[in-house]
Amino acid sequence: MKLTSKLIVATAALALTSTLAFAGSGPYNGTKDALDGGMTYPRANGVETAYSYNTQAMKKLNYGRVPTANELKAWDMDMMPDGTGYPEGSGSVEEGDELYEAQCASCHGEFGAGGKGYPTLAGGSVESLKNQRTCPGKDAPTRTFGSYWPQVSTLMWYIRDAMPYAHPKSFTNDELYAMTAYLLAANEITIDGEELDDEYVLNKEKLMKVKMPNRDGFYPNIDGPDGVENVRKFFANPKNYGAVGTRCMKDCGKEKIMRIGMEITNVVPPYSTVRDLPVEKETGSKSAAEKMYDASCVVCHKTDAMGAPAVGDHDAWATVMEQGIDKVNHNSINGLGGMPPKGGAMDLTDEQVKDIVKFMVESSK
Amino acid sequence: MSNISENNLESTSSRRDFFKKTAAYSVSAIAAAAVLAPAKLLADDENIIHHTKWGTTLGDELNKNPYGLPSKYEHNIVRRTSSLMSSAGDMHAAVSMTPLHELSGIITPNGLHFTRTHNGVAHVDPNKFRLMIHGLVEKPIVLTLDQLKQYPSESRTLFLECPANGAAEWKGPQFNSLQFVKGMMSNAEWTGVRLSVILDDLGLKPTAKWMLAEGSDGSEMSRTIPVEKVLDDAMIVWAQNGEALRPEQGYPVRLMLPGWEANLCIKYLKRLEFGKEPWYCKEETSKYTVLTKSGKAIQHFYPLEVNSIITSPCPEKPWKNLKKGQMIEIEGIAWSGHGTITNVDISLDGGDNYVEAQLKGLVLPKSWTRFSYMHKYDGKPMLIQSRSIDDSGNVQPSVSQEKDIIGVEGVYHRNSIVTWEIRKDGSVHNVQVRTDNCPA
Q1: What is the pLDDT of residues A93-111, one digit of tens each?
Q2: How far is residue B184 CA from its own chain's centroid?
Q3: In chain B, positions 47-86, which contact chain A (CB-CB < 8 Å)?
Q4: Position B302 in a domain
């Protein structure tokens, strides 16, 4: 209750003292004093806007329990720009290069250059961020880790938690530093003026010194004790974020009409508003192998975009099978190039992987 | 009429005989009807004349589908996606759109709620679910799902919108479909506990300025949220339209920040940490920042601004078979993350002149609000638009007004007015009314 009442007092004080606060014209007695430039509504006498709520005391509920130190250690793993959460460890650009080639290039392209439909991880420039495709033929701004991201902590944190895509959270701390070093090098980012060549070894201390080229490319400034107040000031002026509509009713002016040039029509399922009976699909439920394939392999094997033999591609699988099924099974279990061991699904038994491979081969005949 | 009910299991042909016979005896009745309409000239509607299949057979057993399903005839009313709205056609990092053209009222059925995933739809075991709340609180806690649900609940009807809704159209119209122009949003009744109730219990330290919310899925989705919003109206929710959240919406538990970017409303919630400084998550730097024409980008752009869209007519629901002079409803949805919708204006001439539409149904803050305008159809081509206003005083901008401030590379937070062109044949097309100064 302490907090809520404090908040209400604060809100009331603001409403009294600030001439900015604006009592809205809507049905719910709101005040225009929210952080985001919008309305807050009084929560009093059991009613807030159109909703009633229970007004009995909600103090001292005491649900749950205090987490143990080990539980906190296991989950409180975020990394922040000031170095909070950076692990101990080290890794070189060269080691990162190998990891990248083996585990990332299939989606993100050689040297992070993209081109495969997945996000591009390197290249571009801060200057390009001024590009506007206002007219046909103009260049796009390039928003990559190197040209756009304000902080390096974001990259290491994200890679650790979310990549590689099909089996995230699989890197050691040393590998993480190597991966990060490689992506810094690929983006030609220097540390203390030093270029990151193949032998460069990254660690916690060095990582804390990285200043990203577009560090100052964002507003409002959210850092430090004034961060939240800067956000409030930003939203107080609608011009800052394009909330500039005007309520003209007559002779507001005519503008040109732009029609669709090339309509995008490849949508799934295809457009239809017809109300008829669906065409009965071929019956027969999926085999266990197909289900496991859907769960663990389809992400890379649906197409050849990532260099994996696409299921259904007769020629590609004929070539694979020239090695003989034993070798193919071996590669699937132990990994090969961009193919992680067991496709990253380490909970599969060897027999299950073999069943899936059989399904993939059969489906590609 | 008793004749019919006695013979209602007879074949349809004998029923027709019956009508023939009756007709002979009721000439005067037919003559009376002819005054109202030239009934003789109208062909009989076979659907009325004949018994139906469903009227002459037994239906399904009542609990054939213990969890009910829509009519089979509704099979085209589904979420749709496009490989262009994914990474490389990979449907684990993609978005699907709600069929707004087929929705009625303000509630989106759970199976039609738009979905954005960054690492596939996770399937969290509710028995293994844990929520940890820690950092700058007097008493950190972990909760099981049952413990979380012990907190007194509240329900709110709120929209959820991806700030990339309409992102494909900064530079011009691309899709001829309401579903793809505005379908990255839905509206539902969400039930859970207000975070302020939990924090009252734990005690928040005065130095806490920001909250990190983190998900438990493969993308470990995370965002930084100002504590002020958390204490104002943030909720932790476990129910959507009366049942458990769908996996696509974050089962078993997600964060709900009324009126703010859906991406901030972390799904598969696992951890809330309170701190002094913002975290700089991937989705508040690399993505969900609005690059403006200055070359600098707006970060921490939370609210979805005042917005509206005409849902009928629309490209999927054209004005077919209308007669000149007949009345027809123009209907749509308005919403604002800044507050409550107060007015919606309609233009029939591409934004030169506007008339005021009427709001209908429940008018709730940070929720879809339906609007309605009765129009006399005259068969001429039209450019129809809706423009909404909220109680914070914000007015939905035109394409040019928004573009002149932001530029065309912002990707997110596009809320400018949408124009439907209605052609002579009644077909409806997505166009934009805008001024560009390109060299010829």
Answers
A1: 999 999 999 999 999 999 9
A2: 7
A3: 72-76, 78, 80-84
A4: no
How many C-beta neighbours within 10 Å does residue B8 have? 11
Are the Cβ atoms of B353 and A251 closer than 8 angstroms? Answer: yes
Report pLDDT digits (tens) over B292-345: 999 999 999 999 999 999 999 999 999 999 999 999 999 999 999 999 999 999
Closest alpha carbon within chain A to B137: A66
Answer for the pair B192, B237: CB distance below 8 angstroms, yes or no: yes
Quick one: B278 exposed, middle or buried, by C-beta within 10 A (0-12, 13-18, 19+)?
buried
pLDDT bracket for residue A21 (50, 70, 90): low
Per-residue pLDDT of B199-248, as tens digits, reads 999 999 999 999 999 999 999 999 999 999 999 999 999 999 999 999 99
Could you tell me the sign of the dihedral formed by the alpha carbons of B11, B13, B18, B23, in that order?
A: positive
The number of folded domains in chain B is: 3
CATH code of the domain in which A299 resides: 1.10.760.10
The answer to whether residue A2 scores a pLDDT higher than 50 is no
Q: Which domain holds residue B335?
A: 307-431
> Which among A125, A241, A276 is the top mutation candidate for probing chain B, defined by the most B β-carbons within 10 Å of its own β-carbon?
A241
**B413 with A303: Cβ contact below 8 A:** no
Whether the bond into B313 is cis, omega within 30 of 0? yes
Indicate if the pLDDT at residue B63 is higher than 70. yes
CB of B191 within 8 A of CB of B238? yes
- Which of B200, B223, B343, B429 is the best substitution to test chain A (most A C-beta atoms within 10 A)? B200
Chain B contact set for A222 (CB, 8 A)? 278, 299-300
Chosen for mutation from A4, A6, A54, A78 (greatest number of chain B CBs closer than 10 Å) is A78
Touching check for B119 and chain A: CB below 8 Å? yes
Is there a contact between B226 and A24 if contact means CB atoms under 8 Å apart? no
Predicted TM-score (pTM) of this structure: 0.83
Cβ contact B300–A231 (<8 Å): yes
Q: Identify the closest residue of chain A to B407 by CA–CA distance.
A: A132
Measured CA to CA in angstroms, residue A7 lies from A200, A297, B276 at distances of 51, 51, 18
Query: ipTM of the assembly?
Result: 0.88
Range of the domain at A125: 79-207
In terms of domains, do B166 and B18 share one? no
